[in-house]
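Example pasted here:
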Amino acid sequence: MSQSTTLWVLIAAMAVTTALIKAAGPVVLGGRPLPPRLGAVVVLMPAPLLAALVATSALADGPRLGVDAATVGVAVGAVLLWRRAPLVACVLVAAVTTALLRAVGMP
């Protein structure tokens, strides 16, 4: 099997696996509400998951961690959010900060 075919088979297998995982919840619960303890845990999950995604994308430099222009941009956006600036302004300032730092030569 060629490398391209292997890649597409892997992508298809991952798509099917993802669909099965997403379908498992409704199938297992069968329309019943979540138990209260599980519901309490599910409500707490989005914030740490989002924080983990932001941290890895801001600090990842290939297989290792590193600080670059994107890290500084995310930090500037986080400070603005902390100071209660509007979300759109935070994103724009973070993007401009990252672009300016890359323009002056920071990787």
Notes: The chain has two domains: 1-32, 44-107.
